[in-house]
Amino acid sequence: MRISELSERSGIAVATIKYYLREGLLPPGERTGPNQASYGEQHLRRLRLVRALIEIGGLPLATVGEVLTAVDSPDLPMFKLLGVVQDSLTTPPSAASDAEWERAAATVEAEMARRGWDPHPSAPVADTLTSVLVRLAQLGYGDWGETVMPTYFDSARAIAENDVTTALAAGGRGDIVDAVVVMTVLGDTALAAIRRIAQAQVSLELLKNSGESPR
Amino acid sequence: MRISELSERSGIAVATIKYYLREGLLPPGERTGPNQASYGEQHLRRLRLVRALIEIGGLPLATVGEVLTAVDSPDLPMFKLLGVVQDSLTTPPSAASDAEWERAAATVEAEMARRGWDPHPSAPVADTLTSVLVRLAQLGYGDWGETVMPTYFDSARAIAENDVTTALAAGGRGDIVDAVVVMTVLGDTALAAIRRIAQAQVSLELLKNSGESPR
């Protein structure tokens, strides 16, 4: 298809597509004339992935380039590919004193070790979790690391099994990355919303049982 | 204690405390002289809650005022109080066509009805979830409403039971609201991080089982 049709089908302006081509985010089309090239379904799919990374993932273009380089490396194991996508979507943790940080990091490590989880590939996200525990401790909720987090770990495991199975079922390598990105980002929002719906339901049930009028 | 000590213990500048007093976010202290007032532990606790709402919840001051009005209404059932806190932390959903929206909303309603959950108190967060499902459908993942969401619902229920029990155990009314705010916001980040750690673990296990080198 010509670039005008690619633009129409993807909903992305021709000027933007040309910019992606210049930046190497989109591979060149097949030359069909001095000023014309032909594009295929793989270009449409790649455009969709770039859009998902920028619009949903909120990634800067340079990071999109890094993710795409990983996607295009045929020798990179799928596992490392998932890591590149995840790390690019991870927010860097905030600062804390050494003692606070070490205490929180020990809680995270203990929780993973107790489950036999490999601490190696989770380093960047584990730091995010550690910084949440630091903040909790600073706000006076230091015990939540032991009381609340185990349930989060168990539930997250069930969710992750579903996530990974669904993403791997998406098909080829580009499709999987697309699915991982969409699932990671939209899944966060979905899970947060469902958790709040469930919180409302649980408190409603508790209050009904306690005899207090729910509304 | 005097306002200078209140400032020291809370880490909030005297000028900011005076601003909160003028805006009615902090109740006045007990007058001890023409230009002096005495503040108690309840002022310190209230300051901490205001800070959590602003810094962690990212709420504008007007919304903080609404939440505090709910906290200070002794006749408001606990259940409604939780709703006010949750709704103040909910992002409004994005736009979608009527047909897309109704399809997604029907999926959310069906999932809740299947579990016997009361759809009534969850309206604003249910809209957030509906907008995620709309976006998923627009990206070609419309079937995730049926394949992925049920696990999210089951896991969120387990998490929410833990959340609510822990928050209610926090003590008095102000403490519970403080705990709900902190748990809602920091819980989102913690859960997102743990989910990613679990995704890494699950994909590592899958790849080990499939014989592919994990690294």
UniProtKB/TrEMBL annotation, chains A, B:
SMART domains: HTH_MERR. InterPro entries: DNA-bd_dom_put_sf, MerR-type_HTH_dom, MerR_fam. Gene3D superfamilies: 1.10.1660.10. Residues 1-70 form the HTH merR-type domain. Keywords: DNA-binding. Pfam families: MerR_1. SUPFAM superfamilies: Putative DNA-binding domain. This is MerR family transcriptional regulator. It comes from Nocardia rhizosphaerae. The lineage of its organism: Bacteria, Bacillati, Actinomycetota, Actinomycetes, Mycobacteriales.
